[in-house]
Every structure is written in structure tokens, then in C-alpha cells.
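Incident review: delayed structure delivery

Summary: a single-chain prediction request sat in the queue longer than the usual turnaround. Root cause was a stuck worker, restarted by the on-call engineer. No data loss occurred. The affected request and its eventual output are reproduced below so the record is complete for anyone auditing the incident later.

Affected input:
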Amino acid sequence: MRPEGTPIQALLWRTFTPAIVVVAIALGALVYSRLYDTILDGFSRKLVTTSSLTAALVDPGDHDWLIAAARAGAASDLVEAMPRYRRNVEPMRRIRRELGLTYLYSQVLGGTKDVVYVLDSTEGSEHSTIGSEDELPGETRAGLRAVTDHGVVYVSPIQFQEQWGLLKTAAAPMRGRDGRIVATAGADVNISVIQVATQNALFASALIGVASLLACALATLMILRRVAQPIEGLKGDALRFAAGDRNPPTVRPAPREVERLRQDLAELALDLIATMRTAWTQTADQDRASNRRLIEDLLADEPAVVSLVDDDGLLGLWIAADDDSEGAEARLGRRAMRALAERIAAAPELAADWTALAQAAPGALLAIDRRAGVVRAAGERPVRLRIGAVDEVTLAPGEGRALAPGAMLSVLTPAGPITIGWAARA
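Output delivered after worker restart:
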């Protein structure tokens, strides 16, 4: 047996499921990439704004004096306790706390290393005292040099610094009392802060991916319900028609094309029913005609007049009806009467009821009383006779007529006169 193809619902699931997964992954990746870029851009803007604001807030005169103290190696605890230091660092600490930054400070290029710290808003173990020095990555050092030389704001990528870890830094120029750029205001954010925001973005991307998966699955399910299931139902109706069931197709919601196909299938079913009914009628008519011809051929030699009783006193005859002399039913009646005659001959006691037995087939009954020389219509139909050469009479039911000795007697039938031989017996 030839196997069936893949069901349309399974085919649609196989087609749409990989597409759904690919779309969900691509959408999640796109959202994550956009969110990640947005997060980094947001931190860059925050760092640029904060470093520039810090450079504007710090008093130039105080900062020039603090730079000189840092270069001179003054005691950091004494300097940081002075009003010049405290009134500039306190606003920086509030800004750092409220904006969630990791470090906010000012620095100058030079010293035995790369930079010398002046103001630092950090408190605790990570606080850089005034005059402390630090080494920077080469790209950051070049960026600070560009800030000092050209007055631009530098924003670094995420970089690893040996003492501070992974940081993203922005540096804005700070001018002294004479208007020259003498230092830079730095704002740093640790990668852990970015990672938290990135993880939130990743979670949002995953939610969007799951939502897109659910949305695509729902859309696929709707397609299955609106397209695949009606087509499967239409296929079942077609198979049902092929199996012989002629009930109309099941009406169900479906797209316009499927609905048209269902209507065409219903019209085809109606045409098939009409064609089959016509064929059944024609076949039945042909069978009846064939049977009739067969019966007529088999009964073609059956006589129209049958002698049922023939003894010394009575000659009883059955005569086929005039209106059915050539039909199959009439010929069957003739055969039945011939069989009845054979039965009476075998059982003479049935002769007394021959008129009643002969009523089984339509026809006339004629009784000839040999002793009395009388002919009589014994049944319920009239009988046409010819007595002698020209004397034609019609005997009504129960009517009789005397016969002259030796007179010729003929029964008139549609096929022609049938001469009956009879003789009076003592």
C-alpha cells in the first residue's frame, strides 16, 4: 500500500518552527546589541557630563593652590583637612554618590609616573590622597594628553587598569586662574556597574525572545486553525466521497479559496449522486428488459389455449386474455396453466376444482359438456367463439350455447382462430 504524504499540519509545524526559533534568536540578539550599545552610550554621556560639570564646579584658584601643594609633596592629611580642599571635594562626593559613579577626581600629568591626583571624592581604602601618583594604560595617557593640549573631552573604552580593574573613563579639561588648561577632571565607572545594566538588558532581550517565540507560535497555531485544519477536513470529505458516502461536505470556517473548493466538492458530490441515480435507473431498466426478453424467449412456444380437463364428460379449456397474449406475464401464465394441466392429469381428483385453480392466471375459461353438446363460458371473462364456418358468438360469463353433433368449434384469439376438436361421447 502506498504510504500517505506528510500531513499539512505537521509540514507547517516543521516549516514554521525553525523560522520561529531563528527569528526569536535574531530578534533577541538585535535587541541585546542595541540595548548594550545604548547602555554604553548612556554611560559615556553620563561620564562626559559629570567630568565636564566637575571641571566647572571646582574653584580655579583653590585648584591651582592644591596642584602646587601636590607637586611640592605637602602632607596629604593636613592639606585635605583645609577648607580649600574640603569645599571643592564635598560637591564631588555628592555627585558621585547620586550618579552611582565609581570614581570622581582631578589629576595633572607629570610626576614620577603618569599622573598626580589632586582632588578625589572616593572615601575609605580606595581614596587617593593628594599628591599620590598612578600609571595609566597608553591609550588613556594619550587621551589625557589630547585633553590638555586641545581642550577636548576624552572617553575611553572599557580598559583594564592594574590597580583599579576594568573601568570606563571620561576626562574633561580643567582651567586654572589664568585660563590655561592645567588639569583634567576624571569620572570612572567600574565594569561591574555596566555588567549589572548589561545583565538587565540581557534579561530584557530574553523576555523579548520568549515573547516573540510565543507570538510566532500563536501565529502558527492560527494559521493551522484557519488553513491546515480546513484543508485536512476537506481531504477527509473527499476520501469519504471516494468511499461511497455522498453526504455533503462539513461546513467549517475556512479561507475563501478553501471555501470555494468545498463548494466545488459539494457540487461534484451532487453531480455524482445524480449520475449514479441515473445509472442505477438505466441499469435496472436494462436488467428488466433483458429479463423480459429472456422470459419471452424461454416461453415463446407456450400455447394460448390449454386443455386443463379432458375426460368422457367434460373438456375444460383455459384461454389466454386478449390484452396480454404476447407479454412475458401472459407467457408465464400459459406455462403455469400447462403445469396445472399436467398436475390435474396426474391427480384427477383436482378436476372438480379446475375453474378455481385456473384463476391463478388471467384468462377466460371454456367448458364443453360432451354428453349434452353444450359449450359454456365457465370463468369471469367472456369468450369469443366461432361455431361452424361463419357463426361467431361471444359468450358472457356463465352463458352457454348448444353445439350440433360434429360442428367445428374455434376460439378467436388475437393471434388468430384456434380450432378445438371435440366429439360427443356416450
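Verification: The first strand starts at residue 103 and ends at 109.
Action items: add queue-age alerting; document worker restart procedure.
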